[in-house]
Amino acid sequence: MGFRLADWIYKLSRKIAFGVFGIICLYLFLLSIFSTCVIWYDTESTFYIKDFPLLLMAGLAGLTGMVFLCRRLLEKIVDRRMAVMGIATLVWAALAFVFIINTKIELVYDQQLVYQAVIKLLEGDYSPWQPGGYMHAYPFQNGLVLLYIPLRIIFRDNMYMAVQVINLLFMELLAVGFYKLGERYFGINVAVFSYLGTLSFLPMWGYLKYMYGNLPGLCLAVWAVYFLTKYLENDKRRYAGASAGCILFAVAYKGNFLVYAIAMCIVLLVECIVRKKGAYLCVTALLAVAVMLGANGASWIMRGVTGYETNRGIPKTHWITMGLRESYVAPGWYSGDSRKWFEENDFSIETCIKDDLEQIAGSVQRFWNDKEYGRDFFAKKIASSWNNPTFEGFAIVVKGNLKGTLDYWMKDILYSGGVMNTILTVVMDIIQSIYLFGALLYMMYCRKERELNKAIPLVALTGGFLMHIFWEAKCQYTIIYFIVLIPYAFAGYQECARRLGGVLSDIAARKKVLKNEGVWKFAVLLGGDFGAFSLQRRFCDVYF
Quick one: which of 156, 245, 384, 535 has the most CB atoms within 10 Å? Predict the structure, then answer.
């Protein structure tokens, strides 16, 4: 009975994990083929543009056919993977370095304030941690400050360039991480193209210029998932320790990666119940401790150094408040001066939370009273944060070009309305649909491969999607989840091509029977085939 209950829990958990993801993926795919969101470079306002769904669907069907027709060539690429990946890495590194060198921009907004906090801390100036200072309002940035201190000591005024070069290394490690996950989940073919797909994912290139922890945190989170997957396979404790270490620093870089940690803990707890291994419960506790240290450890250190309270900044409820109200960018995006609001409330956490709860209640009441407005609000919010093919990759670079000193060809690439910008945006829009469609193919075909330990990235994406329905929205928040679709998309195309090959082989066999044995025998075989295998099982095999 105990075994049956554990088996039932595992099957239910797997259905929920893949089923909810499937619904979200289908919704995002429909968004991607019917519309596109773009951000205007100066005001950052979001514009909603109609797409061409029939043309995109025809193109995706053609792509699937090309994967089948070119499967021999793709196999040769995999056979020569070391040479192909090596050349691709060199080309990517050269282009990325040219991009970094030719986009000489200034640090602005939060990046600049974090950078200044690092400098002032080393000079013994603790004013950013005093009431009214940036670090006092946003204590979760203490992790970034602490991690960037060694770079300031070593590289001095060249610290920002060092950060960009390190971002380059982290992106390479991210591609290797997806290679490892793809190989572990789906085999070497998917691994190779996951690596190539990650390096060529243009929206991420803009984050090479971003001194805000997105790339390092994402890289470490992916490796944390990989090490946990290895641990679930062989129960070697060193992998559990490596996973905890990676997620600790990922959360220290950026608190958003807490969602990855939660996804890992959920899967671990289910596996603990199913396999009846108490060690998994201990590893879950280890991950929880790592997350707590990553989220709060830097603040504890800074409190000891500065002597100021460093963990009672703007309450988290304020990001929900922003997520449920209008903004000049798009519904649910950042709005208002949060630091000024914090100061106006005398830096009182209790007063701020009370004000937030009143505003949240007012927003919910408005959605309830005007359901059409509420539907429109959340539809636009989700579209603006998930359906922007550039994922702010261009906008975050353009914001630092305060003096307009970029070369014309760089402006043409980065600025909305430029010829190359338009072309690249269209290309990225198509690629976004390609990855979503591939993920749907994976959900349709790979029923037997749906093990729960292969779902950790998808659970993280699901968690990120659900959280940002209510939380403040930004594309730079959602790109860290969207990118995990890459190995699943290639797995979907691989399986679709394999099944298409099987179908064509069956048709060829039927033609041979028709030619050699006569029409009546062909009809009997064909009828028996349809009686034994439904079209759904042959082509869709949908299972949630």
Answer: 384
Closest CA to 432 of 44, 178, 51, 154: 51
Number of H helices, E strands in the chain: 25, 2
d(CA 393, CA 395): 6
Q: How many CB atoms lie within 10 A of CB 200?
A: 16
The predicted-structure confidence for 76-116, as pLDDT tens digits, reads as follows: 888 888 999 999 999 999 999 999 988 888 888 899 999 99
Query: How confident is the model over 288-345, as pLDDT tens digits?
Result: 999 999 999 999 999 999 888 887 899 999 999 999 999 888 999 988 788 899 999 9
Q: Provide the b/e sequence for 390-404 (b: ≥16 CB within 10 Å).
A: bbbbbbbbbbbbeee
Q: Residue type for 143, please?
A: G
37 three-class SS: strand
Burial class (CB in 10 A: 0-12, 13-18, 19+), 18: buried
Instruction: Record the tokens describing residue 29, joined without a space.
Output: 């795919």
The residue among 280, 268, 273 whose CA lies nearest residue 225 is 268
Whether 222 and 195 have beta carbons less than 8 Å apart is answered as: no
The one-character DSSP state at 38 is E
d(CA 510, CA 395): 56
Location of structure tokens 């009672």:
312
Q: For residues 524 and 300, what is the distance between their CA atoms, to the nearest angstrom?
A: 76
